[in-house]
Amino acid sequence: MLADIVPCSMLAGNWTDRLRQPARGWRAAGIFLGVWLILGVSRLPAEVAISFPLGPWQRPGRYLPVEVRSGSAITLKAERSFPTRILTEPSAIASQVIIPLMMGDSPSRRIEWSDAAGNSGRVDAPSQVLSPSDRLVGLTNPVDASAAAALFPGHRVIPIVLNATDPLPGPPMAWATLDGVVLDSLPPRARLEQWLASGIMLATRTDPRAPGWQRRGRWFVMDPSPGAPAQLIEPQAYVPSYDWHPAWPGEFRKMIFVIGVLIGLGLILAALWRSPWALAAVVAVSVVGMIGAGLWRSGLPRTAQATAAIQIRGESLTTMDRWFYQAGMVESASSLAVTTVPVRPVAYAAEQLSLSDLTLEVGPDGGPVRFTYRLPAGMRLAFVSREVSIGTPSSATPSGAKNSSLRELARRWYGPDAVVLSQRNESPWIESWPGD
Q1: Residue 173 has pLDDT above 70, yes or no
Q2: What's this model's pTM, rounded to 2 decimal places?
């Protein structure tokens, strides 16, 4: 009966098309799946491998060397600390790189990572926490493990074997968790100075026949000078700035008054002008006055800066610590460039790190580039850098500053041989430190 109603040609054609539809559907699904795989694979998280050259050991408040292998730019952060971000394009990242990562003021259990694509994850932090009486010593020769205990009498010495060819690769300040390193061969003097500036004692069995080395039993050693506290959180570091009250000086307030008077006179004269253009003149004076005041204000510093330099002179070592204080006059973003000299921030509370968005940015080789941060109005942030010179120390002239809090702090942290060389205000529009 169906054949009597529908022609056979139409019936056959309809069933043929219906048989072809599943094949077309599978073909379309295959094309869609292929396109999704091509486009979707590029969105998968890049492989990230994170390891710790110092094994299971960490010391709160110190830089820890972290080996990172990633196919994209990545940011790492320990608990209660600030992050380290690698600044580079994915194609520029080395297969593996050592970066400095600051550990929090309390033991960290996790280290979080994230990349620019939004991928993130976490890894377990080193599980063993060094106590204040522990001394972590790196060895290029495992045979020296038992003899290394003589380097730190009265302390528990924990040996760890390093690569004999390149014992401390990457930026020297990344290895601040180490207390000492025993070397079979000595690198250039500049490298030794950077390790000393990071607080690492140097030791070798062979007499270097160079200034700075002292005989200690079977070892020739070079000790770093005493210096600023090595902790991330240290409220006492802000004592010298308590008497520093950054404020706009009287000349600045006078300038604001003069500008206001000039704009007001201009508006009065424009209003008294008997002309159809009087209203336009009032508007023009207002606009010009606001633009001029805005341009003048934009040229003024948004932060107040002050620095202090403290020198410690030994028989053959000269250590220079430079303190950098910055206070926000208004909320603003700022940065501090980092060279080969180890630099670290010192906070008065852990909350200060998150409020300021403090971040250490490093290059593709792991070397520090700069710190970036945001200073709300009234907040202060301190940094300290250390530079060590091996050789005969040069004479130094003490600063004439009368800031007793800074000198007292220098004696407490650095000892009686510390000399405050300079203490100055870096912002010409901001009132200087008392005693400058």
Answers
A1: yes
A2: 0.78
